[in-house]
Structures are given as C-alpha cells and as structure tokens.
C-alpha cells in the first residue's frame, strides 16, 4: 500500500495504529481534529475537522485505504454527534468516492447492538439494537458503508469494536476485550484481503467468554492470538460479582444500556 489514511489518529485506537502499523504503508497520513505529535519518518500529519466536507475531500486525495476511527467515541449530545459522527462519516465516504479510495475500515461499536442480552450469541445477521445515541450513529455508519458498497463499489469492513486496551478493566471486558496486538493484525488482514465487500464483524480477541461470532469472516484469515483469560483471576479479585438483575449486566452494552437518555 502506498498511502494509508488514519482518521482519529490522536485517540486511543489511533495511537495504537500509528505505532503498530509503522512500515505497513509507504506513507501513513494521520488526521485528527486535535493537534498531534509531529510527523515521523514516512508519516504525514493533517489536522482536519470531519464536519468540513471540503477539507475531508482534500484529506482523502491520493489515498489507497482508510482506517476511519474519527468522531466522538462516547455518548454525547445529539448535536455534537450530528457533526462528528453523522456528517463526518458521510463526508469521509463522499471523499473516498470522489477520490477513488476502494477500501475502508469503519470503526463501528458493540454499542450498535448493545440492547441484545448477554445470553444471545450474535453474528453479522443479528439486528442492530443500539443502546445509546452514540450507538445509533454507528448503525448509521454501517448503513452508509453498505450504501457506498452497493452503489459505488467502495468496500468496507465495519468492525463492531469491543474494548481495546492493554488489559481488561472490569468483568464485562473479559468478554469484550480485544488486545492491541489483535487489533493491529485485524487491520492488516482487512487491507491484505483480495476482497471484502461490505462486511460487518466483531473486534474481539479469542476470549473464553464470547458473545459474538466471526465465523462468517473466516475468509479474511484473521486469527486473534490473545485472550482475556490471563487476566480473569486479577479482575475477579478486584471487582465484586455482578448483579444479574442489573441492566448493565443483562445487556451487552453494559452501562450504556443501563443509563437513561443522555439529553434528559
């Protein structure tokens, strides 16, 4: 790959990508609305507001692939999400269409399906059940990705990311955790694949406790190497047993599903 664009490069996942994908492309273009560290070897740093369509169309010029992590990654007021996650995602796809970018990794979220119960095993055919306004914007992004593939042949892998940190932070993350190493190997698998179409899959490591299946995405050849099981004893010793009557425990979205409407 000659030039790879990473939006949201200043965030947690963006920083993981910036470090883990060094050398993967001839040039990695890093973009965020906030200031970032100066460009290193084979890097370009471009500050960009995703809600600015002209700027995003310019940002996506001369790009071979996009890892789209940009936008608001927590629950927020609708007007804020409207600009960052709705308008921003449309602008990104329109820039890709106009500039001939053929493949995108869209950072969807487990919160697009957060109102499914933990007792239900999900795959790519499971219905969207967002647990928050933020989750709604991820459903929108998946729909936008589907539209741009069917209409314009822009391929997307929409990854419903669980919880990507160095280690799980609570009992719920024993099921949702994805290691940074597995995240980077997934990014490479997505862009190495001969074809993807529009694929919806789950960003999760090979945990013992699983709510999600990626059997339909085996053609990518991605095999997560890590498991949250190594942290189970530490987590269970630190956090009390979960209350099975708590909505945050009943539903896969956890606290996002348990909370009321953000703007109330």
Automatic annotation (TrEMBL):
List, alphabetically, the Pfam families matched: Epimerase
Q: Where is the signal peptide?
A: none
Q: Which residues form the NAD-dependent epimerase/dehydratase domain?
A: 5-165
Q: What's an example of a GO molecular-function annotation for this chain?
A: uronate dehydrogenase activity
Enzyme Commission no: 1.1.1.203
Asked if Oxidoreductase is a keyword of the record, the answer is yes
Q: Which domain of life is it from?
A: Bacteria
Could you list this entry's UniProt keywords, alphabetically sorted.
NAD, Oxidoreductase
The EC category is oxidoreductase
List, alphabetically, the InterPro entries matched.
Epimerase_deHydtase, NAD(P)-bd_dom_sf
Per the similarity annotation, which family is this?
Belongs to the NAD(P)-dependent epimerase/dehydratase family.
Q: What is this protein called?
A: Uronate dehydrogenase
Q: What is the lineage of its organism?
A: Bacteria, Pseudomonadati, Pseudomonadota, Alphaproteobacteria, Rhodospirillales
């Amino acid at each position: 790959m000659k030039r790879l664009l990473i939006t949201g490069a200043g965030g947690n996942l963006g920083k993981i990508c910036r470090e883990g994908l060094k050398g993967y492309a001839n040039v990695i273009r890093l973009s965020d609305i906030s200031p970032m560290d100066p460009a290193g070897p084979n890097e370009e740093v471009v500050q960009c507001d995703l809600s600015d369509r002209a700027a995003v169309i310019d940002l996506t010029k001369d790009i071979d692939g996009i890892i789209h992590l940009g936008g608001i990654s927590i629950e927020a007021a609708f007007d804020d999400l409207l600009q960052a996650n709705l308008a921003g995602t449309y602008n990104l796809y329109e820039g890709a269409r106009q500039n001939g970018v053929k493949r995108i990794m869209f950072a969807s979220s487990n919160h697009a399906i957060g109102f499914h119960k933990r007792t239900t095993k999900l795959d790519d055919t499971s219905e969207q059940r967002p647990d928050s306004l933020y989750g709604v914007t991820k459903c929108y992004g998946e729909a936008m990705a589907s539209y741009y593939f069917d209409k314009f042949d822009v391929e997307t892998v929409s990854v419903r990311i669980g919880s990507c940190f160095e280690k799980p932070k609570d009992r719920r993350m024993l099921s949702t955790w994805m290691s940074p190493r597995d995240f980077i190997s997934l990014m490479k698998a997505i862009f190495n694949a001969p074809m993807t179409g529009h694929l919806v899959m789950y960003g999760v490591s090979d945990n013992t406790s699983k709510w999600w299946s990626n059997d339909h995405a085996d053609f990518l050849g991605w095999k997560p190497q890590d498991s949250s099981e190594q942290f189970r004893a530490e987590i269970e010793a630190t956090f009390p047993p979960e209350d099975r009557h708590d909505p945050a425990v009943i539903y896969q979205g956890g606290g996002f599903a348990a909370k009321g409407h953000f703007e109330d």
